[in-house]
Design brief:
Blueprint (H helix, E strand, L loop, with lengths): L9 H4 L13 H11 L3 E6 L2 E7 H4 L27 H10 L2 E5 L4 E6 L6 H25 L3 H4 L4 H16 L12 H10 L1 H6 L5 H19 L18 H19 L1
Antiparallel strand pairs: 1-2, 3-4
Length: about 260
Amino acid sequence: MGRDLYVCTAGDLATRSIASQSPDATVAATTDWLESEGYDVAPVIDGETVVGYVELDHLQDAAADDQIAAHTNPVTLEEIISTDATFDEVLSALYEAPFYFLGGRNRLTGILTRADLNTSPALIHLFDRITLLEERFRELILDEAPDWKERVSLDPNIVEDIEERHADARQSNIELDETHYAQFSTLATIISSIEACWDACGFSSDHRASSQLDDLTKLRNSVAHSQLIVQHTGEGLGKGRTIGSVEQTYTTLTDCLDAVST
C-alpha cells in the first residue's frame, strides 16, 4: 500500500487480565458479579486449572444456589483465537461468535469480545487506513478528474468553503491542491460521480460506490471523533452499526485501498 501501516491483531485488542470464578461459586453470586462488572462471559478456574467458562445468559434460568460447576462449558478450539489473528480475521470471527479466548484449553491469556472493537487499537488501525485512502482519493481525482468542480454537482456552500480555505492557505504560502481542503464526504461524492474514479476503486456502478462510500464516511466520522465503532452488539434488528456492517465496510476500505494502490 506504499507505506507501513499500523497493524492490529487479536492480541492487541483482547483484555489480558482475565477475571474468573471458582467452580464452587453459586449461580446467584456469579450472576451478580457478571452483571456488576459488565461481563457476558467469564472463565471458571480451579486453582490454576481452567475448568471452562460460564455465560451470563445461560445462568439466568439456573437455580440460584447451584454451583456454577454444573453450568460450566468446556473451552474447545472453537472458542480459541490466535493472538496473531489479523483485524479482518477478528471481524470475521466476532461475526460468528460474540467472544473468544486467547491461549489454550489449559491456560487462558486473554478474552476477546465485540466490545473490544471500540478500543484504541481498533480506532488507530482504522484511522491509519482511512487516512491513506483519503490520500489515494485525492491523487485519483487529480489524475482522472482535475475538472471535478465542473463535472460534479456539489452544494455551492461546500465549494465556496473549499475555495475560501484554499485561498487562505495561498495567502499564507502553504497552499496545496484544492482537493486537500475537501472533506472525506466530498471526496467520496466526487469518486462516486465520475466513472473513471469509481471504476478505478473497484466498484461496479456509481450507485454501489455511493452506497458503500457513504457507509465508509460514517465509519470514518466515528473513528475521527473516537466514537463507538460497533454501536449494536446484539442479534437481529437494532439501532446503530453492527459487527456485520463493520465487517462489510472494512472490506470496502481494504478493497478500495488495494485497487488504488496497484
